[in-house]
Design goal:
With 130 residues, the chain is of the alpha+beta class. It has a single domain (10-129), classed as Aspartate Aminotransferase, domain 1 (Alpha-Beta Complex), CATH 3.90.1150.200. The protein has five helices and six strands. The chain has a six-stranded antiparallel β-sheet. Helix 2 packs across helix 5 (102-129) and helix 3 (71-77) crosses helix 5. The longest helix is centred in the C-terminal third of the chain and has 28 residues, at 102-129. The N and C termini lie far apart (48 Å). It comes from Listeria welshimeri serovar 6b (strain ATCC 35897 / DSM 20650 / CCUG 15529 / CIP 8149 / NCTC 11857 / SLCC 5334 / V8). InterPro entries: YdhG-like. Residues 22-109 form the YdhG-like domain.
Length: 130
């Protein structure tokens, strides 16, 4: 994607993506929405982002891959399943010329949702103790 473009919504991001990637980006979006219906959409770091009690996951398209960003905890929890993909501390790359693992995206989103809910509950419990 052209780094000079500024996006304010996920809809805009997908609309301005290369034609051959739009359907996959929309399916990634729908996969995340289905896993975390209570999450809200926004743009963060110029990437489509889902937010619930903090950022849940981001996704994006690059020249040769779709990026999925479930935070470092999301990567470490799924390292075995990520073995065939290129990944780093907080990101995984799904090659554009391969089938995107939507089930894995769903599982990672569910993991991050549970994690954010747990953190929010702990924060609330601490506040009540004061």
């Amino acid at each position: 994607m052209d780094n000079k473009l500024e996006f304010t919504t996920i809809e805009e991001y997908i609309t301005q993506a290369p034609a051959e990637t739009k359907a996959v980006l929309q399916k990634i979006r729908e996969t995340i929405q289905a896993a975390a219906p209570e999450a809200t959409e926004k743009i963060s770091y110029q990437m489509p982002t889902f937010y619930f009690e903090g950022n849940l996951v981001h996704f994006a398209v690059a020249k040769n891959h779709y990026g999925f960003y479930p935070a470092p905890s999301g990567i470490s929890a799924f390292e075995k399943q990520l073995g065939k993909y290129k990944y780093s501390k907080g990101a995984v790359q799904f090659p554009i010329n391969e089938e995107v693992p939507y089930d894995l995206i769903r599982e990672m989103t569910l993991f991050r949702l549970a994690e954010n809910k747990q953190k929010a509950a702990e924060k609330l419990a601490k506040k009540k103790k004061k």
